[in-house]
């Protein structure tokens, strides 16, 4: 049986995370014949990943993918069928400032990459970078399908559409998978053993990235909402996780949660929350969850841990590239390979993605980046009508979505004078006095000034 050839350009191809998941998924797949070009501003990291990709190819279940590190983005994009964008905007030192400076002003952030002061300044650094990537795609691969994996997802997906309106782009996030895993666990627990996986669970997704909800859950023809409601009633106060966290494992300490925020929002709003607690909490006023995060069963992830984890991943990647260890052709939870296969006409596939609103969510302006399901097929990426959020949730979501859209527009049009008022209007910043909010804004501009235009620095001063 012949395999379907596909050329993938991976921008940020020195990735220590998402690139390896793609390699494992391609090694597991038996239908594609993929050639992956890895481009990164750190070319040595891309070369390392090309060596690791060759090792994954050795254990492939189908035709082995090939990997090539290329020195410039134009070479990576030329003739690409699919472009994957997975970059780190700035350095972890910048992210540390995004979290640590607001903390001195009394603002706690559990992640700091989507909303709040941290998400805002990460966006300021990222939008010019991602917009240039979109222009490069316009110039070198205008017909390619483009998947953005980079946060802040809503803002950056919007920036890419602003820079290249005809781009064939979707934003990809795996947060909704957490809810689907829970539903599969409920069904398997009832059955007394593993009968289904999260891939069997279907949900109707509504919201914006990292603040996602579902109003319908199905599993093999069964309406799972009643069972999920009973699950929440049973575990809402104590919380739940599929396994107990390892107290010696920092990743468990800083990334696992007990879904108590998710459950509480369901009780308050009336439809299940889908994203993880650490993200959901940042969209709400600080007094709701962040101030008492330990009581709600989640942690504030310190950037110092992310740095230690990066160093550990570099060591493991160097060992793998050097021939140590054995890569595994195991399917990850990521949807990208299935999405690519759908676009190539190898079946249909539905998953939650971030796209401009074309009517899939009622009540949010057209063009706003929203997260709903979409159908991947040879016809392209077709958003599916999701409906309308409950009124209380609609108000919260519309506020964040409007700010994200306005932030994108302000940076893309160099309207630097608009930025402080947008920053000031975030729910985590609102409780500050005007003077404190201005001081926070100025200090954060100064801390990341090397990534920001001089005009913005003058405006902030």
TrEMBL record:
This is Alpha-galactosidase. Its cofactor is NAD(+); Mn(2+). The keyword Cytoplasm does not apply. It comes from Paracoccus tegillarcae. InterPro entries: GH4_Enzyme_sf, Glyco_hydro_4, Glyco_hydro_4_C, Lactate_DH/Glyco_Ohase_4_C, NAD(P)-bd_dom_sf. GO terms for biological process: carbohydrate metabolic process. Binds 1 NAD(+) per subunit. Residues 205-429 form the Glycosyl hydrolase family 4 C-terminal domain. The keyword ATP-binding does not apply. Belongs to the glycosyl hydrolase 4 family. Pfam families: Glyco_hydro_4, Glyco_hydro_4C. Substrate binds at residue 151. It comes from the Bacteria. Mn(2+) binds at residues 173, 210. PANTHER family: 6-PHOSPHO-BETA-GLUCOSIDASE-RELATED (PTHR32092), ALPHA-GALACTURONIDASE (PTHR32092:SF2).
């Amino acid at each position: 049986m012949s395999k379907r050839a596909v050329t993938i350009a991976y921008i940020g191809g020195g990735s220590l995370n998402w690139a390896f998941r793609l390699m494992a998924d391609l090694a597991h797949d038996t239908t594609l014949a993929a050639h992956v070009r890895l481009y990164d501003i750190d070319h040595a990291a891309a070369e390392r990943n090309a060596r690791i990709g060759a090792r994954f190819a050795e254990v492939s279940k189908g035709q082995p993918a090939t990997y090539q590190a290329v020195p410039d983005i134009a070479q990576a994009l030329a003739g690409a069928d699919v472009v994957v964008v997975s970059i780190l905007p700035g350095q972890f030192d910048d992210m540390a400032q995004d979290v640590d400076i607001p903390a001195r002003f009394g603002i706690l952030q559990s992640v700091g990459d989507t909303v709040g002061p941290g998400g805002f300044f990460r966006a300021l650094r990222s939008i010019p970078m991602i917009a240039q990537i979109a222009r490069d795609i316009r110039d070198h691969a205008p017909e390619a399908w483009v998947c953005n994996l980079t946060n802040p997802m809503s803002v950056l997906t919007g920036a890419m559409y602003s820079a290249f309106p005809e781009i064939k782009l979707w934003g990809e996030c795996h947060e909704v998978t957490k809810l689907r895993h829970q539903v599969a666990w409920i069904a398997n627990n009832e059955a007394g053993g593993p009968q289904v996986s999260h891939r069997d669970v279907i949900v109707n997704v509504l919201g914006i990235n990292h603040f996602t909800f579902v109003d319908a859950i199905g599993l093999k023809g069964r309406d799972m909402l009643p069972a999920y409601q009973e699950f929440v009633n049973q575990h809402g106060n104590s919380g739940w996780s599929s396994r107990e966290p390892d107290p010696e494992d920092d990743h468990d300490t800083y990334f696992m949660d007990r879904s108590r925020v998710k459950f509480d929002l369901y009780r308050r709003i009336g439809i299940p929350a889908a994203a993880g607690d650490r993200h959901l909490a940042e969209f709400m006023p600080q007094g709701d969850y962040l101030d008492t995060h330990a009581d709600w069963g989640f942690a504030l992830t310190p950037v110092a841990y992310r740095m230690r984890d990066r160093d550990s991943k570099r060591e493991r990647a160097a060992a793998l590239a050097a021939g140590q260890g054995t890569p595994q052709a195991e399917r990850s939870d990521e949807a990208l390979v299935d999405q690519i296969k759908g676009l190539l006409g190898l079946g249909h596939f539905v998953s939650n993605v971030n796209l401009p609103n074309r009517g899939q969510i009622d009540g949010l302006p057209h063009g706003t980046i929203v997260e709903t399901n979409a159908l991947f097929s040879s016809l392209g990426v077709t958003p599916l009508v999701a409906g309308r959020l409950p009124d209380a949730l609609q108000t919260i979501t519309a506020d964040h979505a409007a700010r994200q859209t306005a932030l994108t527009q302000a940076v893309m049009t160099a309207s630097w004078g608009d930025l402080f008022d947008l920053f000031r209007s975030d729910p985590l910043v609102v409780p500050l006095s005007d003077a404190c909010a201005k001081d926070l804004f100025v200090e954060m501009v100064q801390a990341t000034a090397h990534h920001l235009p001089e005009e913005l620095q003058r405006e902030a001063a």
